[in-house]
Amino acid sequence: MTESDHSFTSETTSDDCAVRKLSRPRGLGDRIASSLIHYPRFRLLWISNLFFFAGVWTQTLVLGWLVFEITHSPFAVAIFTAARLSPMMLGPVSGAISDRFDRVRLLLIACCWAFGVVSLLALLVALDAISFVGLVFGGFCIGLAQSPSQPARFTLVADFVGRESLSNANALNSIVTNITQVVGPALGGVMIAAFGAATALSISALWYFIALLVLWPVRNVKTRRGAEAGENFRALLASGFRAVLSNQLVSSVLLVTFAANILLWPIYQGFMPVIAKEHLGLSPEGLGLLLACSGGGGLIGSLVIASLGDFRFKGGLFLVGTAIWGTLWALFALSSWGAFSFVMMSLIGFTAAPFAVLQTTLMLMMTEPKVQGRVMGIQELTIGVMPLASIVIGEGAERVGIANVALINGVLLALFLALLAVRVPALLRYSGRPGWRFGTAGICDLRKGS
């Protein structure tokens, strides 16, 4: 069977409910790498993502450390983080664009832009010609490469693999994030200490360029579009929001994403240098190791999910795993002992995997292919609340300390997820197995017992 036989079509047909047969994996390694083995285009996208996010995580650590070194202010770190993440607010527009235009070429443009911006920042840092304002503006420009391209990046997975491989493919994409969380920050911290920030930024720029070269061979591949060229742009946006609001399960997944991104992800994305230096007394190398522990735990968690294939109760794992993740953040915040903190950060990474993998998997499974780009864009908008949340968290950190903020927010997230599980029990039972059919108000299961 060819790769195209496994891809979604632009219209919902009875074939979408059929179980597409892949050759049975022979062992654990084959189960984990199933999508990489069966889908060559996804394999190129995966490798490109590997280098792209290596650049992202290196510059995230380096620039955050530079901001704190210049200002010695957690609130300044919050402003920088808000600027870097603010392009995520363009999510609905980016999703509509990904449904209208060629998605591979959108990613190539993003790689070119990121390479140019980070190269310029590396030069300014090397010349000692960078200021706090310059770092904030540079973070914003980098965000213009990363955030608006995410809907296209997510929906390309659905373009390149079959429905029954979505969990595996998204787990493999999460593995990319976690590998780069290990490699990028660890190298970034070591390089800051050994060679300086400019060298670390230069390497992250090089990784963006490699990401472009890897994806270049599929630049002419036609990807599925959810909109015709003449379709009104405002109507495109409205139809995406209708697809979300008319489906309780989709809305519930988005609520979890929203809660996680106002309570805990801003702390991880922007305040780890503050926690490392003020709360735990770590050096740049120690900060890199702390983030590497989280990335290593996330890598193991993603490998576990990838090995499960098209497993049942994806919604339940999503809710329960995210609740445990919030609880572990609270325990981490209570610790000032270095060894225990490293262990807790590893467990935090492990339990973050269900959230990171399944939020996108569930959204793609719960929506019609023709609106997936726009739905992913709305998901990006819910993640885009992080800039505003970062400012609030930064203000709280100035008053009570970042560790206390992490403690409170971890407890709040766990309590919210327990309440949501009671209110929407269907999400706990949701499996999204082959045989599910899209409806105007949600999803109905056509096969008893799935």
Give a written overview of the molecule:
The structure is a single chain. The chain is mostly helical. Helix content is 74%, strand content 2%. It contains 21 helices and 2 strands. The protein has helices at 28-32, 34-38, 40-71, 74-85, 91-100, 103-126, 132-146, 150-160, 166-194, 197-215, 233-245, 248-263, 265-270, 272-279, 284-308, 314-334, 338-366, 372-383, 386-400, 402-423, 425-429; strands at 436-439, 442-445. A two-stranded antiparallel ribbon has the order 1-2. Strand 1 and strand 2 (442-445) form a beta hairpin. It is globular, with a radius of gyration of 21 Å.
Question: What is shown here, in short?
Answer:
With 450 residues, the chain is mainly alpha-helical. The protein contains 21 helices and 2 strands.
